[in-house]
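Dear Dr. V.,

Thank you for agreeing to look over these. As mentioned in my earlier message, I'm a first-year student in the group and I'm still getting used to reading structure tokens, so any feedback on how I've presented them would be very welcome. I ran two proteins. I've put each sequence directly above its structure. The first is here:
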Amino acid sequence: MPRQAIYLTSLEGLAGKSTIAISLALLAKDLGIKVGYFKPIGVDSGSGTKEFVDEDAETLKHIVGLKEDSSLICPFILRRDTFLDELGKVESPKILETITKSYLKTSEGKDLMIIEGPPTLSEGSFINCSVPKLARDFKANIITVTIFKDDFIVDDILQAQDYLLKWEVSLSGVVINKFPPEKMDRAKRLIASILQEIGVDVLGVIPEDKMLSALTVKEIYEFIGGKVLAGKDGMNKTIQNVLIGAMTPESATRYFQKVKNELVITGGDRTDIIFAALEAGVSALVLTGNLYPSVKIFPKADELAVPIILVPYDTYTTLQQIQKIVGRIKPQDNKRVNHAKKLVKEHVEWRKILQGVN
């Protein structure tokens, strides 16, 4: 068993666990600490291959330079949205046994194990592999990464703490991620102090960062697929905001002009919205429903280098797909990797987190 194990959890998806896991692993390596990583339950990235792949686990494996086989690092991978169809054929004790054996194998010779949990504390309960159950088995310190939305964050964290205590495990601390930069003083003065008073150790408050959340049009296209109809010269443009075009052209123009570096999602039959978006200077357009727009827009999009991508999904599904990759770091993206590491180093008490091995 390692000298220390950290179980990174969250209360909802896209909280930033993987980014913090990468940063902590790299900071620990800088200190000469032998680091391992484990993700008990992954979700298939939908790559289309026969074998299921958890993209976050694969990314961290390559960035941190882990030698273990992927099937050990993430031993149990679910198919997104339809996993119950497969689980009827598998017995829960066998799943737990596989996860436990894989953890023991990946932790051999390691000083520190970073374990990444699923989007919520309860996921995996149906196979007796919930976060508190595995954390207790692996003797791991639980740190929750949560996104600030409003002051109810205090209630959410307290509820999580109560849930963990029922399993006789405690919350070692919380990292508040993606906090509005202009409200950082309030976070430290009020929210963090309230949590500290009620026994929750706030280990960091990380400001929302555009560099981490920004994507290029090309990255979005490579993930969601579809067909580029025009504006191919603008595929390297940066996207920082995603807007839905479902209003009158007049309202749309005012709406689009208020935001910079935006991608607009709208139906392919909304030629009026598409023209309004091009006139307003948007960075890219995604047209939904496999509805081809008027060919009159193509010369304008080519002239302005505004990519127009056609996809078969509806608007809501398209938005969900894009949100899945916001803030995700690719193995070859050294700029984002180093920036994430810098953010954690500056805004998280990482030495305190690593005190068991530091």
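The second protein is here, in the same arrangement:
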Amino acid sequence: MLFNIIVATMSVGLISLVGVLVIFRGQIHERFLKVLVSLAAGTLLGAAFLDLLPEAIEESEFEPHVMTSIALASVLAFFLLERFLHWHHCRDAEHNGEIVRAKSGLKRHVVFTNLFGDALHNLIDGFVIAAAFLIDVQTGVVATVAVIVHEIPQEIADFGVLLYAGLTRTRALLYNFVIALTAVGGALVFYYYGTRVEQLTPMMAAFAAGNFIYLAVADLIPELYHEKNSTRVIVHSLLLLAGVAIIVALGLVFPHVA
């Protein structure tokens, strides 16, 4: 099981970095990013509602409302965390209601804030993947796929921020790679403690479900609202549904082990 967890978390980082390398060889087209965002939103919602939360409720000794309360607390926690990071990132860039051009000091601050947020997010991804595999292989595979699909557009955005902040492509890739390793560290930490505290695994699965729900409805789906072209709106909607379908298909290919 530990081998599966390590391979899964390393795969997330490597696939995300390969995606960044491939895309940044040329110009990024916003339409392509919207495709990834649509698919990611669907997989996150599917993984949360069709796999992680039901498994958390089934595996837990607590009442179902305790697990759903943990999921709700997760949504609220990530909202507050994201608002704090956004405020901390922007407060020095605003003056009299106008956004001023970032200076070198502010750009260094952007690098730190971006890397800190990415490290925290990857750490949680490691917790999520480890907790999912500790439930069973099917849940682990579903969680890993959901993380991979949403990590690719996120890593592209993070890489773009680092370039904006003045880093070279080589240094930005190096920083991203090092930060990606925090997912492995998070997985190892949770594996160590999760196998010793029986109820920690389903609680983490519920927390992960809340994380996935928040990412989908607060970060990804709002990005799709900016599209006005009717054809692309239909395509994005179908891709979101396709993301859910991927999770359903994974559930059929990798059935839960009783």
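From my reading of the second output: Residues 178 and 221 are 29 Å apart (CA to CA). The first helix runs from residue 2 to 23. Does that match how you would interpret it?

Kind regards,
E.
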